[in-house]
């Protein structure tokens, strides 16, 4: 697995960055595409649903994991 790299996102009109491994970033983009969303819109949804004790990068990783575990990636292909 690749080391985490910073990626820029815009949430609620504010720029932020998250550190994600390339594999999770690719999965995140595939998830957004499968749902018909841009990455900023999907990140905003994930951000709104996460608990305050969970960081955004962790919440994105968990969402990507759930996306693939649920078979959502295969169902939309």
Q: What is the H/E order?
A: EEHHHH
- Give start-end ranges of low-pLDDT stretches: none
**Termini separation:** 24 Å
Supply the CATH class. Answer: Mainly Alpha
Number of helices: 4
Largest sheet: 2 strands, antiparallel
Radius of gyration: 12 Å
Mean pLDDT: 92
> Can you tell me the CATH topology?
Ribbon-helix-helix fold
CATH superfamily: protein bp1543
Anisotropy-based shape: globular
Q: What percentage of the residues does DSSP assign to strands (E)?
A: 15-25%
Instruction: Give the total of domains.
Output: 1
If classified by CATH, what would the architecture be? Orthogonal Bundle
Structural class: alpha+beta
User: Strand sequence of the main sheet, in spatial order?
Assistant: 1-2
Protein name: Ribbon-helix-helix domain-containing protein
Pfam families: RHH_4
Would you mind describing this structure in some detail?
There is one protein chain. The chain is of the alpha+beta class and 77 residues long. The chain has one domain (5-76): protein bp1543 (Ribbon-helix-helix fold, Orthogonal Bundle). The chain is built from 4 helices and 2 strands; from the N terminus they run E-E-H-H-H-H. It has a two-stranded antiparallel sheet. A hairpin with a 2-residue loop joins strand 1 and strand 2 (14-20). Helix 1 packs across helix 3 (56-69). The chain is globular, with a radius of gyration of 12 Å. InterPro entries: RHH_dom, RHH_sf. It comes from Rhodobacter lacus. Residues 4-66 form the Ribbon-helix-helix domain.
